[in-house]
Amino acid sequence: MVEAARWLPRLLLIRTDFMRMLTSSRRSPVARASSRALSASLLIFVAAALTGCGDETGEAAPAPGDQAAAAQDTASAPQAPGADGEELVDISAIGFDEGNVETAVVQVVEFSDFGCVHCANFHQNSYPVLYEEFVAGGDVVWKYIPVSIAGFPNAMEAAMSAECAAEQGAFQPMRSWLYENREGWMASDDPHAMFRDAAGTLLADAGAFETCMNEGGQALERIQQGTQIALDIGVRGTPTFVVQGFPVQGAPPLDQFQEALRSLVAEVQAQPGN
């Protein structure tokens, strides 16, 4: 049974047992961690054809077969909540929350790299649809955590520009601009100038944005902290989603993401007390 996410969005529940299986070699012996069986809603993800960017070691997001095998191993050893296969991570100081915490019953945490083409494709094509149905609809809280894992050109500066825009309440428009103009700023010898020009259009105080970009400070610390948390829990490619504790490495097709979230929301809402 999947529990309602009443602790959103301060903490991240992560199925570390499943994440370890995803990031381990298929030929290596992987201990079967004790944890709850996966719900049918979450199992929809394991059959999806996922697309993602690998890390600097050249590793790509796990194939659907890898996720399915890991899910079967994990689901074969159910146990009570709080087992060694689960971990709570404090994510209150990082990322950007979208949604109504008072009504949401499902949490999605997304780790994305602005330099990743699959992250860009997801946010330009799938996320607007998911946002309208689930986030604006009040059932899902979505936390976006920018990371810099794969070493894409100028990606750290891009993440900085998003953080600095967020200090003026303009994270979403800057995120959209970064993905729409990804090829340009990645190829630029002066990406800072491009980000500055974008800030002049999108933000109320371009001077404050410039100061934030030059000084780094808390904006840089948040990116570094988010990246370290991602690495610590086993993220090796982007985008990676943690849906109600279940890690999904790579972007599922829109229809399967919708099916999984619809089923998961209905499952949680059907529980006594919801």
Query: What structural class do you assign from the helix and strand content?
Result: alpha+beta
How would the global form be characterised? globular
The average pLDDT is 79
What is the count of DSSP helices, taking H or I runs of 4+ residues? 11
Oligomer: single chain
Main sheet characteristics: 5 strands, mixed
What is the CA–CA distance across the termini? 14 Å
Listing every helix as H and every strand as E from the N terminus to the C terminus, the arrangement reads EHHEHEEEHEHHHHHHEEEH
Helix share bin = 40-55%
Task: Compile the SSE list and pairings.
Elements: E1 11-15, H1 16-23, H2 40-43, E2 53-54, H3 64-75, E3 86-90, E4 96-98, E5 106-112, H4 117-135, E6 140-146, H5 155-166, H6 171-180, H7 182-187, H8 191-202, H9 206-215, H10 217-233, E7 237-238, E8 240-243, E9 246-249, H11 254-269
Parallel strand pairs: 5-6
Antiparallel strand pairs: 1-3, 2-7, 4-6, 5-8, 8-9
Give the tags.
five-stranded mixed beta sheet; two-stranded antiparallel ribbon; single chain; 274 residues; alpha+beta; Glutaredoxin; disordered N terminus
Description:
The protein has 274 residues and is an alpha+beta fold. The protein has one domain (11-152, 219-269): Glutaredoxin, CATH 3.40.30.10. Helices cover 46% and strands 14% of the residues. The chain contains eleven helices and nine strands. The strands form three sheets. A five-stranded mixed β-sheet has the order 4-6-5-8-9, sandwiched between helices. Strands 1-3 form a two-stranded antiparallel ribbon. A two-stranded antiparallel sheet has the order 2-7. The longest helix is centred in the middle third of the chain and has 19 residues, at 117-135.
